[in-house]
Amino acid sequence: MNKKIKKVALSALFAAMITALTFFIKIPMGYGYFHIGDSVIYLAACILPTPYALMAAGIGGALADALGGYFIYIIPSMIIKMLITLPYNAKSDVILTKRNIIMIIPASIITIVGYFGTAFVFYGWSGAFAGLFGDIIQVVGSAVLFIIITCALDKINIKNMLS
Fold first, then answer.
1. Which CATH class is domain 3-162?
2. Rg of the chain's alpha carbons, rounded to an integer?
3. Is pTM, for the whole model, over 0.90?
4. Which helix (H) or strand (E) holds 18?
């Protein structure tokens, strides 16, 4: 199969997983909800070349908001989800490198600052601070799940299977 077609297909698969795991598996909290889609965004960023990871994350996050009726969040989520892919690197033969573990920190900061800013624009200071705890839970939960999933995927050597 053509490598470019394979990357596009894998990107579409990641976008679909991000959408499904954000939309269907969620726990409501404050102004938003906890979901496991971000952990798949981190995974996509560690497997796909950056342009493909950007698109998978942005489309997946935006579609989840659209399906959930959170229309005012479509554009902010698309931007934030695309940005959280940027710290990661897909150049290693394994997913869980020291660098990718450390890059959870800037990705988390991007998520927290991005959604805090979005909530501030939509709801003011009180709304922004009301959603802050949920955003912190979101990034911690996503980080833990990402590490667990990646350990399992590295054990089966998934990156070599996908290349």
1. mainly alpha
2. 15
3. yes
4. helix 3-23
